[in-house]
Design brief:
about 150 residues, mainly alpha, 2 domains
């Protein structure tokens, strides 16, 4: 009889051929399901279950994505301070060229991955500044967070 590996290989081949023969219908069905949102709760539940079962793998994948996104965002912005050319990444910060305000930044949740994603979508709205020049800009343009004490 056939081995388990052989059987799985045959099954994969049959599935590939089926997808090739029915590509248009499968694509239309996929588009319809995505547009309706009917699978969203099912996929959310499956994703949550996978994350719970694979916590370490999920953590490492998240860390890898975060660092890759940061690398791409910094590369897009030139990997150096826009004012003085400082290049040590430990002191470089992403700055909104036109200050959007603390409340708006919180509303948009512009931190971490979401900030890097925003930089990749609209790099013209951001610049890379060293910590010194970022604080100088914040002070000169009165961008400092006002406390309501």
């Amino acid at each position: 009889m056939y081995s388990e590996e052989h059987r799985l290989e045959k099954q994969r081949e049959a599935q590939r051929k089926y997808r090739e023969r029915h590509a248009k219908r499968l694509k239309a069905e996929q588009t319809r399901i995505r547009a309706s949102g009917e699978m969203r709760p099912i996929w959310r539940e499956k994703t949550a279950r996978w994350r719970n079962e694979n916590k370490e793998k999920h953590k490492s994948l998240e860390a890898r994505w975060y660092h890759n996104a940061k690398d791409k965002a910094f590369e897009i912005l030139g990997n150096k301070c826009a004012v003085c050319g400082f290049e040590d990444r430990r002191a470089l910060q992403i700055d909104h060229i036109v200050a959007i305000g603390d409340a708006e930044r919180r509303k948009q949740n512009h931190r971490g991955k979401k900030l890097y994603r925003a930089v990749m979508k609209n790099p013209d709205n951001f610049q890379l500044l060293c910590a010194n020049h970022n604080w100088i800009k914040r002070t000169e343009q009165n961008e400092l967070k006002k406390r309501s004490d």
